[in-house]
Amino acid sequence: MKNRQPTDAPVLRRILLVIAYDGSNYCGWQVQPNGVSIQSVLQRAIEDLVGEPVMLTGASRTDSGVHALGQVAVFDTHMSIPEDRFAMALNQRLPKDIVIQKSVEVALNFHPRYQKVSKTYEYKILNRRIPLPCQRLYSYFVPQRLDLEAMRQGAAYICGTHDFKNFASTKTSVKDTVRTVYDLKLEKEGDMITLTIRGDGFLYNMVRIIAGALLKVGFRQKSPEYIREVLESSQRLIPGPTAPAHGLTLVEICYKEGLKKP
Amino acid sequence: MKNRQPTDAPVLRRILLVIAYDGSNYCGWQVQPNGVSIQSVLQRAIEDLVGEPVMLTGASRTDSGVHALGQVAVFDTHMSIPEDRFAMALNQRLPKDIVIQKSVEVALNFHPRYQKVSKTYEYKILNRRIPLPCQRLYSYFVPQRLDLEAMRQGAAYICGTHDFKNFASTKTSVKDTVRTVYDLKLEKEGDMITLTIRGDGFLYNMVRIIAGALLKVGFRQKSPEYIREVLESSQRLIPGPTAPAHGLTLVEICYKEGLKKP
Where does substrate bind (chains A, B) (predicted)? Predict the structure, then answer.
């Protein structure tokens, strides 16, 4: 006689979470030797809910201090509650600085990193003479005058498909440094400048290095054409200081083939 | 021979500070038996700078969790640095959640509370299905549907000179509860509703009680006319729950006679 599982045995499902967080009090998304990571807090909340060990795989490894409105992560579970209930049930178990925005079931072979995506990041610059306390954790304070028009001219060179090797941290290990930036906007509202960038993927620290390079143009230390020079240089050319983490927010990840259900 | 002071003895000056703070980590403006107050942290920083004991008098006693962009306070000192340098020198001694925006010398008889003023407060309501972590300390999260038009109709009754006794905390001790509200706006941008109110003064918890009453109208638990009923009632009528402190920001205090220098 064959040892068969009963037909009502719980099936394995892959659950995708869209996660917003305030990164101020964490060492980043990924589990680190020191400091509490968003991934570890979330993983514990999931295991507490589903009552089985889970592996949580995120789409982006955000650094310490970086925020998210739409981080994406998946885990597998045998729990059989409706897909949208995971969000609610997890939010009851999570601290207030991590909030699941949405939960959906996806195909078991769906991988948040190897699927084709467009990602959107925002980098905020508070440009006024004196800092504002309530903005200190969510924007980079820059008291110097900025030439926004020059920054926009520089930003235009970033758009398109380029080898962004000079816009990646030297700590990066990836071989293929070609990426496509679909769109880069610089908008100003009151004292706040928001850089919004959308692309098919970003190298390690790429958005913060782009923000730093555009600030150099904004300070008129470099001309807008400097951005093109750095892009086109076959030498390693460091475009400027990396802008600090706390100005950065992972806004959205769109999966090009959508979120196919099983 | 008379015991005269030398003519170059430092003169007493009254310095006015415009202060912005993130109230999240404080027990409010005023010194309290338990918890750290903004006033005490600021007073210590001033004494450390000027090297003499000071009395710091604030214009508004903001509650725990309430934020400020333009709190006003004064102190007297013999220190003779230029008036605008106090701001810079104090910011070097203050934590990042308290930032002096401006310092000016005023007349020695200037009192931040007994001078005629107009004060502006903002109350922020995040109105969406799921909370946003980076907004959690700076807005009141309300997931229910809100009838903004009804709230605006209710808000119109608040404007003008009224006895606001029913819009004050029962803990208040003031006798004269008549105040003038010059302006009350309700604006929506994305998910964020901002109530901006300007008046010649506000009773204890008045803005938060007004926000709570308008939310009751927004939920359609009460009609807009309910606001008028509460205002006109000679009985003690409690208009609804007081909206929580962390949605509130003291935006600006304008002194009608200006800041007269000595």
Answer: 121
